[in-house]
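It is worth pausing here to work through a concrete case rather than discussing structure prediction in the abstract. The textbook approach is simple: state the sequence, then state the predicted structure, then interpret. We follow exactly that order.
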Amino acid sequence: MKRLGTTVHSVQKKLIVRGEPMIGEKKTEIPRINSVVVDQKKARIGRVFDIFGPKDHPYVVVKPYRDVDMAVHLGKKLYFEERGFGGRNRKD
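Step two, the predicted structure:
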């Protein structure tokens, strides 16, 4: 589990997360599309839908699962699982 960033907005049934800065030795990893996103308690929130903005401090769009209350996660830190499922994350 790696830190994704802090949720800053909810737009069109998606969460916008301000990614962690990628400065100096403490560079964070950019998640892959479809990576599973979790909260601090490791409860699954959704999946990475898109990534945009500057590569040294990107924004990540998270598509929440249907039963997730997006308002609960605004202003909270989210994380992603290092191993994703489907799409580009599969190791064939």
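Step three, interpretation. The chain has one domain: 2-83. DSSP finds no helices and six strands in the chain.
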